[in-house]
Write a structure and sequence with these properties.
The complex is a heterodimer of chains A (114) and B (112). With 114 residues, chain A is mainly β. In chain A, 0% of the residues lie in helices and 57% in strands. Chain A has no helices and 11 strands. In chain A, the strands form 2 sheets. In chain A, strands 2, 4, 5, 6, 9, 10 and 11 form a 7-stranded mixed β-sheet that branches. In chain A, a hairpin with a 5-residue loop joins β4 and β5. The radius of gyration of chain A is 14 Å and the shape is globular. The mean pLDDT of chain A is 90. By secondary structure, chain B is an all-beta fold. Helix content of chain B is 0%, strand content 59%. In chain B, strands 2, 4, 5, 9, 10 and 11 form a 6-stranded mixed β-sheet that branches. In chain B, a hairpin with a 2-residue loop joins β6 and β7. The termini of chain B are far apart. Classes of the chains: A mainly beta (114), B mainly beta (112). At the A-B interface, β4, β5, β9 and β10 of A face β4, β5, β9 and β10 of B.
């Protein structure tokens, strides 16, 4: 069965510090991978998606970047965090099936920038 | 630009009631629509996926319908239970893309 892991679960970082969040998927090959952010009181916002190794599409201009060094690994990074980067970060994966493309979400990382 | 709206934002009902959550979207050119459940501080769990060619999907006490022409979907929960308390999110994938656009959710509380 497929599983998706995210770490760390929670993170408190000072403004201006770097960031690296990791997401890994097990039990599937060549998935589409996604990073979302959920800010307090707001809906999920798609940040990045990837259809393959080294292929990253950015949805909104921001202080963050993403990389996919391996088929089932997706990393979200920042060189210098801003207060506005605080939020709940969710990684998701999907594969196309005859029944459509269902997205499966990880447990999330709660980031607080102080 | 596709926009997804969910009404109501919050809902509190006594246990045992049947209830309907609403989702509307502005562009009917969608690939599919998905309903998710999110418990506080947790990730999202997929409940039902409706392809653009389908009218409804059922899973246990849940039934989701899709009316593309009017840009609406409803999630029907039968015989609600306290364990159903969570935030329910609706998301649509515009045609030609797998990038879901999410509504802001309906926060449901079922009282024992």
């Amino acid at each position: 069965s497929q599983t998706i892991h995210q770490w760390p679960a929670t993170l408190v970082q000072p403004v201006g510090s770097p960031l690296s969040l990791e997401c890994t998927v097990e039990g599937t090959s060549n998935p589409n991978l996604y990073w979302y952010r959920q800010a307090a009181g707001r809906g999920l916002q798609l940040l990045f998606y990837s259809v393959g190794i080294g292929q990253i599409s950015s949805e909104v201009p921001q202080n963050l970047s993403a990389s996919r060094p391996q088929d089932r690994q997706f990393i979200l990074s920042s060189k210098k965090l801003l207060l506005s980067d605080s939020g709940f970060y969710l990684c998701a994966w999907s594969v196309a099936t005859s029944g459509g493309e269902t997205q499966y979400f990880g447990p999330g990382t709660r980031l607080l920038v102080l | 630009k596709q926009e997804v709206t969910q009404i109501p934002a919050a809902l509190s009902v006594p246990e045992g009631e049947n209830l309907v959550l609403n989702c509307s979207f502005t562009d009917s050119a969608i690939y599919n629509l998905q309903w998710f459940r999110q418990d506080p501080g947790k990730g999202l769990t997929s409940l039902l996926l409706i392809q653009s060619s389908q009218r409804e999907q059922t899973s246990g006490r849940l039934n989701a319908s899709l009316d593309k022409s009017s840009g609406r979907s409803t999630l029907y929960i039968a015989a609600s239970q306290p364990g159903d308390s969570a935030t329910y999110l609706c998301a649509v994938a515009p045609r030609g893309t797998y990038k879901y656009i999410f509504g802001t959710g309906t926060r449901l509380k079922v009282l024992a």
